[in-house]
Amino acid sequence: MATRVSLPAPCPASWADMTPAPGGRHCAACNKVVVDFTSMTTAEVVAYLQRHPYACGKFSPAHTNPISSWAPWLAAAMLSLSACE
């Protein structure tokens, strides 16, 4: 089973509107530093969130929906196999 990050209530604040800060960007709405997780693996993100459970972050689609990273390959494999008799 693939690990993924669950975001029950994603923040509506815009990353582009936040000011750069050490470790990410500062969000004026919640007065927190939002960590840029996009260059981390899902395992690294999960480990970080276990150490900092109230952290805010910018995630990549692969963190929140790991199936998206391998779905095209699975579809191609199924198509190839369906052509075999």
Describe it:
There is one protein chain. 36% of the residues lie in helices and 18% in strands. It has one domain. The protein is an alpha+beta fold. Strands 1-2-3-4 form a 4-stranded mixed sheet, with no helix packed on it. The protein has helices at residues 42-51, 61-64, 67-83, and strands spanning 19-21, 24-27, 32-36, 56-58. The two termini are 31 Å apart.
How would you sum up this structure in a few lines?
By secondary structure, this protein is α+β, with helices and mostly antiparallel strands. It is built from 3 helices and 4 strands, in the order E-E-E-H-E-H-H. Strands 1-2-3-4 form a 4-stranded mixed β-sheet, with no helix packed on it.
* Sheet having the most strands: 4 strands, mixed
- Based on CA atoms alone, the radius of gyration comes out at 17 Å
Tally of discrete structural domains:
1
Low-confidence stretches: none
C-alpha geometry:
globular
Distance between the termini: 31 Å
Protein structure class: alpha+beta
Beta-strand residue percentage: 15-25%
Mean pLDDT: 77
Strand order of the largest sheet: 1-2-3-4
Describe the SSE topology.
Layout: E1 19-21, E2 24-27, E3 32-36, H1 42-51, E4 56-58, H2 61-64, H3 67-83
Parallel strand pairs: 3-4
Antiparallel strand pairs: 1-2, 2-3
